[in-house]
Amino acid sequence: MKDERIYLSLSQESGFEEEYIQKALKSNWITSGGPNVDEFENELQRYFENENFVVASNSGTSAIHLALILLDVKAGDEVICQSMTFSASANPILYQNACPIFVDSEIDTWNICPENLEIAIKDRIKKGKKPKAIIAVHLYGMPYKVDDVHLIADKYGIPIIEDSAEALGSTYKGKKCGSFGFFGILSFNGNKIITTSSGGALITNSDEIKKKAIFYATQSKDIAVHYQHSEIGYNYRMSNICAGVGLGQIKTLESNINLRQANHLFYKKIFQEVENAKLFENINNVFFSNYWLNAILLETEEIKESLRLTFEKANIESRPLWKPMHLQPIFKECPYYGNKISEELFKKGLCLPSGSNLTNTDKSRIKEVIINFFK
Ligand SMILES: *Cc1c(COP(=O)(O)O)cnc(C)c1O
Predict the structure, then answer these.
(1) Which end of the chain is more exposed for a tag (fewer CB within 10 A), N or C?
(2) Is the pTM of this model over 0.90?
(3) Where in the chain is the domain with CATH 3.40.640.10?
């Protein structure tokens, strides 16, 4: 009999979700918005020590789109985006008919490279357009170089949209990821550290902006008895049922973070013994990754692919790193600033199973594959 498949990262129920879903059903709040949504937002605001305002949306992607709309990004505007990321970071730029400008990664955090960021900004200004926003990503939960990146953004007066979709629970200098940018973004998709089945959040430090975000997310209804609209509206609000799932899930956020740290230690132990593979880690204690996903760098693309296939034979999922956006057919016309860091990472990097629900049996199977492969 074939062993059960081990996945990269699956959602896992906390057991508390049902109560909130029942409450929504019984009170007939089976719609977008509602008491669970308000409560979920309050819980998230509490998580951010009530220093931020949170808007729950129906996905992380829609939260990024809302951030661009609120920053008044329009057709023909330019928006800088980290090239190495999931396409959801960049697609909303196209929704606004704006132009993505991609920037390479640096080798320490695999995130946006401060030097290339400044080169890109200077060159775009020289070419006649100052970028309207910068989308920086905490990839796999690893904080980007917040101080360096924000210093440059501030120098040129460009707001940062902090894509923290993978980094709920991560910190930089002890401060929570999601709270650094002009906007922060979270995702509660099924594979993230906690889920609402599908959902996201926009984080801002202004109550005024929160109200405006909700206005856009609920079809931009003007104040009137009838339905009246003077701006484009969107159906981007989180559903009350999904928020119920989120309220159940948020109770396990801390324990999920601990489980992911334990997974990382499991890999650390293994890869200490392996010379030809390097585990992706915090470079120092300024950075605290939630280790949403663990990843390794192999010596060559061939070894990476061979390891991936070996995992596959054991029915264990592993996956290459995000393919940089400047290499994607859909974005091939977009300007790119950088060297070959993200391309090299893409060639040699592999993500390993890192779910909060990995069992000891799963870990033994994973370890066996790795040990035998490198023997
Ligand atoms: C998951 C993810 C998103 C999008 O979130 P959804 O909720 O799936 O729309 C955006 N950026 C990154 C880096 C992600 O991993």
Answers:
(1) N
(2) yes
(3) 17-251
Residue 14 CA to ligand 1 center (angstroms) comes to 22
Q: Average pLDDT of the chain?
A: 97
The class of domain 253-374 in CATH terms is alpha beta
Q: Ligand 1: does its nearest atom lie under 6 Å from the Cβ of 89?
A: yes
pLDDT for res 11: 84
Cβ 193 under 6 angstroms from ligand 1: no
Query: 123: number of CA atoms within 13 Å, CB side?
Result: 14
Kindly give the residue spans of alpha helices, DSSP state H, lying in the chain: 17-26, 35-47, 60-70, 91-95, 114-126, 146-156, 207-217, 240-250, 253-272, 301-313, 341-348, 360-374
Measured in Å, residue 354 CA sits from the centre of ligand 1 at 17
In which residue are the tokens 């999904």 written?
Answer: 242
Sequence ranges of the chain with CATH classification 3.90.1150.10: 253-374
Whether 162 is in the pocket of ligand 1, judged by its Cβ within 6 Å, is: no
- Looking at ligand 1, which residue's alpha carbon is closest to its atom 14? 165
CATH 3.40.640.10 at 17-251, yes or no: yes
